[in-house]
Amino acid sequence: MALMNYAQAACQALAEAMRADERVVALGEDLGRGGVFGQYRGLQQEFGAARVIDTPISEATIIGAAVGMALTGLRPVVEMRVVDFALCAIDEIVNQAAKNRYMFGGQGRVPLVARLPIGIWSGSAAQHSQSLEAWFAHIPGLVVVAPATPADNCGLLAAAIACGDPVIYMEHKELWGLEAEVPPQHTAALGKGHIARDGTDLTLVTWSSMVHTALAAAGQAALQGVSVEVIDLRTIWPWDRELVLASAARTGRLLVAHEAVQAAGFGAEVAATVAEELGVPVRRVGAPRIPVGYARTLEDVARISAQELLRELKLFVGSEGRGRSMA
Q: Looking only at Cα atoms, what is the longest distance across the chain?
């Protein structure tokens, strides 16, 4: 086991993939100096500027070039710095990368990984702090991944690079420095969630940075006599329906929490599926439908805190009149 942070874990996965397969290349802005968060540190020095490619500031050009690379046999890993900037390349992602395999009867495959970091980035305001995973989950042809830990950022990035279809890979902007142990040659499967904490009274489903908030809230709930099972989806599409349904069937309640705006967020898909399949009570927690403010006081209004989740757990358990009441 090696102790490394979230950025280093991803860098390790990419380096291992590039050593194993010369078709794997990386392109984006500032990769030569290691990337904005150090997630490419040392790669250009090892693999050269022909495989770790610094590009102009043109997101449409970067993604468009990567689609062409993928169609001709390469496996590009594309850096967009933040998901907000990827909106400048939405046509290339949605109408080219996602649809190519279908529109040409499988003659072309687009095995690219687009790294689109999501989430509130402290002090970065409305154009650098969005969580748009639901946008991409809505598009047929895209795989959508949202790792929460260094180990998963290593294992899931490796799986994304190996995938034969375009992957929207959504790291969280405030997790880059998070440290944890990463097993050697760590692997993870796309489409498989993870029970981050066992529980019996309620199932709490989440992903990305919110996993850590959910674990904190579940720890506080346990002190008040309620056992919360926390599920980290890890992959938004395909999502692990079987794991969630099995957990919700055991606990009898489902709460979905995400940092993204609650209105039309992906949590609605999870909640609706569980309600339709099991008929158990479901609730959602998400951000208000507002831009993220620059001032810390305004930014905090858009954040979901552990205390807010704990309050929702109290209301949920109390309103159902089941299990132990939370004081």
A: 63
Query: Region 24-45: what's the mean pLDDT?
Result: 95
Q: Catalogue the active-site residues.
A: 128
The reported pLDDT for the residue numbered 123 is 84
Give the pLDDT confidence of 124-154 residue by residue, as tens digits: 899 899 999 999 999 999 999 999 999 999 9
- State residue 319's pLDDT score: 58
Predicted pLDDT of residue 320: 52
Tokens of 183: 């097993």
The pTM of the full predicted model, rounded to 2 decimals, is 0.94
Average pLDDT over residues 191-213: 97
Give the model's pLDDT for residue 184: 84
- What b-and-e string marks burial along 64-101, b requiring 16 or more CB atoms within 10 Å of the CB? bbbbebbbeebbbbbbbbbbbbbbbbeebbbebbbbbb
User: Residue 321 pLDDT > 50, yes or no?
Assistant: no
- Residue 195 has a CB neighbour count (10 Å cut-off) of 14
- HEC string of the chain equals CEEEEHHHHHHHHHHHHHHHCCCEEEEECCCCCCCCCCCCCCHHHHHCCCCEEECCCCHHHHHHHHHHHHHCCCEEEEECCCHHHHHHHHHHHHHHHCCHHHHCCCCCCCCCEEECCECCCCCCCCCCCCCCHHHHHCCCCCEEECCCCHHHHHHHHHHHHHCCCCEEECCECCCCCCEEEECCCCCCCCCCCEEEECCCCEEEEECCCHHHHHHHHHHHHHHCCCCEEEEECCEEECCCHHHHHHHHHHHCCEEEEEEEECCCCCHHHHHHHHHHHHCCCEEEEEECCCCCCCCHHHHHHHCCCHHHHHHHHHHHHHHHCCCCCCC
Domains, the chain, in order of start with CATH, read: 2-182 (3.40.50.970), 194-320 (3.40.50.920)
| pLDDT tens-digit readout, 164-178 | 999 999 999 999 999
